[in-house]
Design brief:
Elements: H1 4-20, E1 31-33, E2 49-56, E3 59-65, E4 77-82, E5 89-95, E6 107-116, E7 123-131, E8 138-144, E9 152-156, E10 158-159, E11 162-163, E12 169-173, E13 179-183, E14 187-191, E15 198-204, E16 210-217, E17 220-226, E18 237-241, E19 249-253, H2 260-263, E20 265-271, E21 277-283, H3 289-292, E22 294-299, E23 301-303, E24 306-308, E25 315-317, E26 322-323, E27 332-340, E28 347-353, E29 355-362, E30 368-374, E31 380-387, E32 394-400, E33 407-415, E34 421-423, E35 429-431, E36 437-445
Antiparallel strand pairs: 1-25, 2-3, 3-4, 4-5, 6-7, 7-8, 8-9, 10-11, 12-13, 13-14, 14-15, 16-17, 17-18, 18-19, 20-21, 21-22, 23-24, 25-26, 27-36, 28-33, 29-32, 29-36, 30-31, 30-33, 34-35
The structure holds alpha-D-galactopyranose.
Alpha-D-galactopyranose binds next to strand 6 and strand 16.
């Protein structure tokens, strides 16, 4: 047994360790903050795009595409866990790049979805696998006995003996334990009881687009889908049905027209414990997806045939499902007038505190900025990028730096001179047309957040 003195020494040692360490102190945040990078237990950006969440053994498990900043090639599917949906722990690469095959080197791996098969107890992962030109699509399947992997690839799903040569997909698990595979532009397949193959095609939803996501509430099935605009955001829409077989009824948009689904593309809907459906969307940022693609998660209002996210919340409290103000605990707000695209000029912000939030605008002429945080000795403690592009302009928080021990720091902001741009299969050009970075405020925090 430790006596009180020994316990005190242990506590002091633990505290000392915490304060020497430059690793971020894990925040006790209970908020979802949309459109900015989130950090895992190691201070690394949560990298899980085209994601899904399942609940298992008292935790939430997030699976997603582990993106890179310079290539669209498959980097693996990451797995994170959380007890509160806000603080995420990187578990492992649940499915790494394979030596060969549909998820081998220089392939594309997207929209990973995981379900636990009630009959076998196995975790079944489905995904879109493709070549870099999106001309060799498959729906791949992998399984694991443990939720966080490592998943073993079984191959490509077939229907009537032929591989399903389609791209965007989603999954849905019904209350009776049956698993479904949703495919872009229409098909809904029921999986066999072991989830390892396709049983039958149950419906073909006419008018459906890409990135299908489904949930059920009070006997009503809701199917969300996006238009075909590559990494660009668009006004996503939905269908309803009282049976999976249909008839499926087109219901229009679930976010205000022109908001481009609050600047996101749907990927999944998680049912929260109180029955609220939580929308999960991607705010892509091609080509620097690892640093700059972010998440938009919002509670949805679903009542009969009506589904909506009427207003955008920059941040919200998971418990109350009400908007929150994560900037209100700042100890200082400094105005900035940074409007530049000059990659040779940097802005230096010196501050005493634990972390900062940058506030500014995004718009069609916005580009990337590099962000670096230096310690007192000039050592780099954090470096990343922000994307100031959005097709529809937006103003708000662009970044919150990881929380470090209280001290003297310098934040350096510098336009990189490049911007988010890409073309689709038809060579249509998308993205920004210039590389402006516009920041108007910095919020300085001197205590760890408990938002
Ligand atoms: C769409 C799809 C994504 C990805 C991109 C590639 O946004 O939904 O999963 O394939 O196109 O352009």
């Amino acid at each position: 047994m430790l006596d009180i003195k020994e316990i005190t020494i242990v506590i002091w040692e633990v505290l000392a360790l915490l304060y020497i360490n430059v690793l971020p102190v894990h925040s006790a945040s209970k908020n979802i903050i949309n459109g900015i990078p989130w950090y895992d237990q190691n201070g690394k950006t949560v990298n899980a795009h085209g994601a899904c969440i399942i609940q298992d053994a008292g935790k939430y498990w997030l699976f997603g595409e582990y993106k890179s900043d310079n290539s669209n090639a498959f980097q693996g599917f990451g797995c994170y866990s959380s007890e509160d949906l806000s603080n995420w722990r990187f578990e492992r690469m649940a499915l790494p790049v394979q030596k060969e095959g549909i998820l081998g080197p220089n392939r594309v791996g997207e929209r990973v979805k995981v379900m636990r098969c009630p009959k076998t107890g196995e975790y079944v992962m489905l995904m879109h696998a493709d070549d870099l030109g999106y001309k060799d699509p498959y729906i791949g399947i992998a399984t694991s006995k443990t939720i966080n992997g490592e998943y073993k690839v079984k191959g490509a799903l077939t229907y009537h003996g032929q591989p399903i040569k389609k791209w965007d997909m989603g999954v849905f698990q019904d209350e009776d334990g049956k698993g479904y595979l949703l495919i872009h532009h229409g098909p809904i397949y029921r999986l066999t009881d072991d989830y390892l193959s396709i049983d039958t095609l149950v419906a073909h939803v006419s008018g459906m687009g890409e990135s299908p996501a489904m949930f059920k509430k009070n006997g009503m099935y809701y199917l969300l889908s996006s238009n075909l605009t590559s990494w660009e955001r668009n006004d996503n829409f939905y269908f309803t049905a009282t049976s999976l077989e249909g008839p499926w009824k087109y219901q229009g948009l679930f976010c205000p027209e022109g908001s481009l689904t609050w600047n996101s593309q749907c990927t999944f809907v998680l049912m929260l414990p109180d029955g609220t459906p939580m929308y999960m969307g991607d705010r892509w940022s091609y080509p620097h997806q690892a640093s700059c693609a972010t998440y938009v998660w919002m509670p949805m209002q679903a009542e009969g045939e009506k589904l909506s996210i009427p207003t955008y919340w920059h941040s919200w409290d998971i418990q109350s499902k009400k908007p929150s103000d994560v900037l209100e605990t700042a100890s200082e707000v400094r105005p900035l007038s940074f409007h530049s695209k000059d990659a040779r000029k940097e802005m230096r912000i010196r501050f005493k505190g634990t972390h900062v939030a940058l506030h500014g605008k995004t718009g069609p002429h916005g580009g990337y900025a590099s962000i670096t945080m230096l310690g007192q000795m000039g050592d780099t403690l954090y470096s990343s990028m922000i994307d100031c592009y959005s097709k529809v302009p937006h103003e708000g928080i662009r970044l919150i730096t990881p929380e470090l021990k209280y001290g003297d720091y310098t934040l350096i902001v510098k336009p990189t001179g490049d911007y988010s741009t890409w073309s689709d299969k038809k060579q249509r050009k998308y993205g920004a047309d210039d590389c402006w970075v516009s920041l108007d405020k910095v919020y300085i925090f001197s205590t760890f957040t408990n938002h």
